[in-house]
């Protein structure tokens, strides 16, 4: 079971937020832009990007501190701009406040199994990372009949969630009744962890 596709894009990548500030440009990229401008002034064609970049990279390595300072200053100013804009932007996720009355997503079969697995190993001195690795291995070795109770419970939870969401969308009132989800604690988006991610 892999990650769900988001917006039909393979690999589950999300569409880029157009409001997110443009990343800060590094000193080296400012230098590359400078080299492009110089080549343009000299009438040089930059048809082979790889060669041009290799040549510029070599020159960059040979610049002394004073020569690099101009580009470092530009990069520092752009970094300050980026930090300032990111503070106002709030990181995107932080701005989207989740309605506490919205129904909680149901646990997947794997996460239901993981809750049981944690319970079985409660009190044992096992690091969380190792516990997750052990759980992932055990889950992969289980056959379908062993996984079935967890999957069935997950499907029942999904049905309950869909009913609650329909009621929530109609009235916006508290439709919460399905238990809290481990996935909610990790990520409230449509992403879903698969068992390999928990190793």
Description:
The chain has 199 residues and is mainly α. The chain has 2 domains: 27-89, DNA Binding (I), subunit A (Orthogonal Bundle); 109-198, no CATH class. Helix content is 57%, strand content 0%. The chain is elongated, with a radius of gyration of 26 Å. The model is unreliable at 174-199 (pLDDT under 50).
Provide the fold topology:
Elements: H1 27-41, H2 49-62, H3 65-89, H4 109-120, H5 128-141, H6 144-171, H7 182-186
Helix pairs in contact: 1-2, 1-3, 4-5, 4-6
Features:
single chain, 199 residues, DNA Binding (I), subunit A, 57% helix, 7 helices
Structural class: mainly alpha
- Mean pLDDT, all residues: 78
Whole-number count of domains: 2
- Please trace the helix and strand order, writing H or E for each element: HHHHHHH
Radius of gyration: 26 Å
Ranges where pLDDT stays below 50 over 5 or more residues in a row are: 174-199
Query: Helicity level, as a percent range?
Result: 55-70%
Write down the overall geometry: elongated
Largest sheet, described in full?
Answer: none
Strand content: under 5%
Oligomer: single chain
Distance between the termini: 15 Å
- Number of helical segments with 4 or more residues: 7
Total strands: the figure is 0
Structure described in brief:
With 199 residues, this protein is mainly α. It is built from seven helices and no strands. The chain starts with 26 loop residues before the first helix and ends in a 13-residue tail after the last helix.
């Amino acid at each position: 079971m892999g990650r769900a596709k988001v917006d039909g894009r393979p690999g589950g990548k999300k569409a880029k937020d157009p409001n997110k500030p443009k990343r800060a440009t590094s000193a080296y990229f400012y230098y590359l832009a400078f080299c492009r401008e110089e080549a343009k002034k000299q009438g040089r064609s930059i048809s082979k990007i790889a060669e041009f970049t290799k040549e510029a990279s070599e020159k960059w390595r040979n610049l002394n501190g004073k020569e690099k300072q101009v580009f470092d200053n530009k990069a520092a100013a752009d970094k300050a701009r980026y930090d300032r804009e990111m503070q106002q932007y709030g990181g995107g996720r932080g701005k989207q406040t989740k309605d506490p009355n919205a129904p909680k997503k149901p646990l997947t079969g794997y996460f239901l199994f993981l809750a049981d697995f944690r319970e079985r190993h409660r009190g044992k001195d096992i690091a969380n990372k190792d516990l997750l690795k052990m759980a992932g291995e055990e889950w992969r070795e289980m056959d379908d009949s062993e996984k079935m109770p967890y999957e069935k419970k997950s499907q029942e939870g999904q049905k309950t969630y869909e009913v609650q969401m329909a009621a929530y969308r109609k009235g916006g009132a508290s439709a919460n009744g399905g238990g809290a989800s481990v996935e909610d604690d990790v990520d409230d988006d449509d992403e879903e962890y698969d068992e390999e991610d928990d190793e």
